[in-house]
Amino acid sequence: MVIEHFHPGKLKELYQRFDEKGRMLPNGVSYINSWVHENMTLCYQVMESDSIDKLHDWFRNWDDIVDFKITPVISSAEAKKRAGA
Questions:
Q1: 58 CB neighbour count, 10 Å cutoff
Q2: Residue 66 CA to chain centroid, in angstroms?
Q3: To the nearest 10°, the Cα dihedral for 13, 19, 21, 27?
Q4: Which of 59, 81, 62, 75 is nearest to 10 (CA)?
């Protein structure tokens, strides 16, 4: 999961760039879904990637207006399997 912290005053610029250029994902990074906090300062994105380096490549397209945090997650089914349940 990627948590985006929007830079103050940059939300309109963010959406304009998105409308013009899309997500600008490198090969090997896939968008699954996202949710924006109701106060419009954070976005929670479920992404899939075969490399953390490729996520950082993607971040460089946006890091002038967004700060990123990666939180690795697994599916509930995978968690159950790992727990031996």
A1: 20
A2: 10
A3: 110
A4: 62
For the residues 44-73, what does the mean pLDDT come to? Answer: 96
| Domains in the chain: ranges and CATH | 2-83 (3.30.70)
Element (H, E) at 43: strand 42-49
Q: Read off the pLDDT of residues 1-10 as tens digits, 9 standing for 90 and up.
A: 999 999 999 9
Give start and end residues of each alpha helix (H) in 1-85: 11-21, 52-59, 76-83
For 18, list phi and psi in degrees, rounded to 5.
-60, -45
pTM for this one? 0.86
Specify burial of residue 43 (Cβ count, 10 A radius: 0-12, 13-18, 19+). middle
Closest CA to 15 of 62, 68, 67, 70: 62
